[in-house]
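Shift notes (night). Ran WD repeat-containing protein 41 while the centrifuge was going.
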Amino acid sequence: MLRWLIGGGREPQGLAEKSSVQTVGEEQTQNPYTELLVLKGHQDIVRFLVQIDDCRFASAGDDGIVCLWNAQTGEKLFELHGHTHKITAIAPFSSSDAFEEKRHLIITASADRTVIVWDCTSGRQVQKVSCFHSTVKCLTVLQRLDVWLSGGSDLCVWNRKLDLLCKTSHLTDAVIFRLTDSNNESEGWNVLEVKRLVDHQDNILSLVSVNDLTFVTGSHVGELIVWDALDWTKQASECNFWDSSVHPDVQPEIKLSQSPNETSVQHLTSDEEYVFAAVGKGIYVYNLQMKCVIACQRTAHDSSVLHIEKLPNRQLISCSEDGSVRIWELREKQQLPAEPVPTGFFNMWGFGRANKQANQAAKKMQENTPMYFLELVGDLIGHSSAVQMFLYFGELGLATCSADHLIILWKDGERESSLRSLTLFQKLAQNGDLQLKL
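Came back to this:
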C-alpha cells in the first residue's frame, strides 16, 4: 500500500525545552526532495533496507516479513513469509555461476535461529538453514570468493548452496580472522585467528572499510581508530569528540554527566579522503591524511544519529531517533587573518622563545589547515518515530525506514513533475489529441 504526498512533510511536534539543533528555512532551496511516497507493508519496526539492483530494494524488521519494492514507483513486488520471529540481519547475494543466468538473491537471518535464501525475481524461498544454536546477528557476503559468513555465537562460512564450509567459536573480543582455501580438498576452507583488537576501551559498535589498505572502527565510548589492513596496526586515533578545547568553534554544553549513548560512535561511512562519524547526536568529519577532525556538528539532531551516508557534491545525509532525516553540505570557511599575539601583563606566562615558536607553529597550522563546517541544506520531516536507516538511489531518490512501521520514498519534485509532463505529452500524441500550430 502506498500514498503519494506533495509538499515535503509536516512540522515537528513541540519539544519540552528549546532545541539547540540547527534549523533551515521553509523554502529549502537546495533540498530537491519535495515529494514523497509512503509505503505500507510492515506491522512492526522496519530496521533494514538493502539494495538489490538499480531500481529494487528489500525491507525487513521486527515483524519477520521481507518486502521487495520498486524504488521508482513504490510498488510492492513481493511479501516474503518464512520467519517466525524478528529479522536480525539481511544481505544481498548475486549468483556468479558462469553456466547459468545471473540471479539476484537475498539472505535473511532471524531470532527464530534460521537463515533463509530468497530469489528476488520469483519471490520464492530457495533454501532454509535451521542448524544454528543461537541467533545470527550479522551476515556478510564475500562475492569474489562466492561465499557468505554468518556471525553470532559462532562464525560460520557457507557457499552459495548453503553447505557449511567451516566454523569457529566466536570470541567476545573484537577479532580479525583470515579465511583460507586449502589446496588439499580433504581440508577445504579454514578460519584462522589473526589478531585481537584490544586498543579500544569499550565495545566496538561500528566499522567501515576505507580501501584495501585501511579500515576504521568506532567504540561505545566515542573512540575512533584508523587501522592498517595489512599488518593490523593502529595508524591513528581520535578520542576527543567531546573535548570543547579541540573544537573551539562549538558552544560547549553544560552537563553534570553524559550517558553512553551521547558519546557512542553509532555509524561510520567513508570515502578515500574522509571518515564521517555519527557520534551521539552529532556528526564529525575526520580527515584521514591530516589525522584530525576538520568539521563537526555536535548537535545535528535532537536524539542519537543512527545512520549517515556520503552523497555526491560534498553532501551528507543523516537520520536519527528523533524521526528526522537531514541533508548537510561540507563547506569551507572564510579564512580570517590571524590575530596579533597579545603583550603585557596578560601574556606574562607565555613570554620567550618557546611561546614565539608555538605561535609560529599555530599560525603555520592555521595557514595550512583548511577549516570546514557542515551546513544544513535540507530537513525531511515525514516519519513519526526513529528513522533506522536509508538507501540512496541517485535520480530515483531516497528510501527511509522507521520504527513507525513505514517506508518513505523521497522524490526530486522537479524531476517527478517533468516526468509527469512528459508522460502526458506522449499520451496526447498517441491519442492524436496533440496538434501543432505553425
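The two ends are 46 Å apart (CA to CA). Residues 41-196 form a domain with the Methylamine Dehydrogenase; Chain H fold (CATH 2.130.10.10).
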